[in-house]
Amino acid sequence: MEATHSIGIVSAQRAQFNSPLACKSGGILPEYELVYETYGSLNRDKSNAVLVCHALSGHHHVAGYYADAPKNIGWWDNMIGPGKPLDTDRFFVIGLNNLGGCHGSTGPISINPETGKPYGAGFPFVTVEDWVESQARLADKLGITQFAAIIGGSLGGMQALQWSMAYPGRVRHVLAIASAPRLTAQNIAFNDVARNAILTDPDFHGGNYYAHGVVPARGLRLARMLGHITYLSNDVMADKFGRMLRSGKYIYSYDIEFEIESYLRYQGDKFATYFDANSYLLMTKALDYFDPAREFDDDLNKAFATARANFLIVSFSTDWRFAPERSRDIVKALLHNQLKVSYAEITSTHGHDSFLMRHAHYHDLIRTYFNNIASEFTA
Known about the structure:
Blueprint lengths: L12 E5 L3 E2 L5 E2 L2 E8 L9 E5 L11 E2 L2 E5 L6 E2 L4 E2 L4 E5 L14 E2 L4 E2 L9 H14 L7 E5 L1 H12 L6 E5 L7 H15 L17 H15 L2 H7 L18 H16 L2 H13 L10 H4 L6 E7 L7 H13 L4 E6 L13 H19 L1
Parallel strand pairs: 5-10, 5-13, 8-9, 13-14, 14-15, 15-16
Antiparallel strand pairs: 1-4, 2-3, 4-10, 6-7, 11-12
């Protein structure tokens, strides 16, 4: 844990919503809870609020640490805190766990009030649009009529983009990092293989494994291993592991021989202990479904016609899963609509995971952008 400039001890909060949420899939959540954390202080006119949208396996614990778990540090702690690029001495930052998640917000492991049992496979499909709607309701509850900025990486970036289209008057700046206007066919294929690892696990039981007292750990493990490969670049894997052998020689077996195998299995095993399989399925489908241009005859220019925010779009040179070309597609559509756009392609060796890493050029860029935003309400 980095003691210097840490936000320090944080705690989660809960917001209860009793008005039904009609999901784009046709499903309805009659009531639901969102778990969230806040950092910093909301200023008098509530103009300094920033929403952080999380990616596939993310959650509300964005920065700081818990009093009873000091090693449980927020997933973007290197970005958010006093004096950090997103400075909590200036901004009021909100992180939340999306609906369908497994970190406290209503999801498949939650009790369905109509049955008294976990939702399980009966939890409705949720989309990026549904998440943004629920986030807007949370903002209403907090009395925030307009965000200074909404920021997210990967799937979180998609949510930030959706905000600009769905609620153009409620966000002044959008920062979409390592994101895309929609997944490529290759990305959908990776997600489908990962889902099938879970769906075909004998312990899955059609999504109702809670009643059987089991977890489809084998499927989750394989899904995470596959996903982790796609988040890293070849350079990172080569530099970190190469062809190193655990024993220094071939043992001619199907057990772990190479260090990369050991690493992937460790990541898979760890993931299977804390992430819910149904949530993983829902999150990857939300990724697949996001395609704002689809309702405009595949014209991304028309999809962004309602947007009014200023934008910072960031990509990374070795990110082959959300390649820079996809970010440039976003930039072109925004420029077509005569919106104010800044774009940066950061040279990085870390692949898609670059948006989570401490990188001087990247962090300086984000810091400068937020300094400019702060001048809007401190001048």
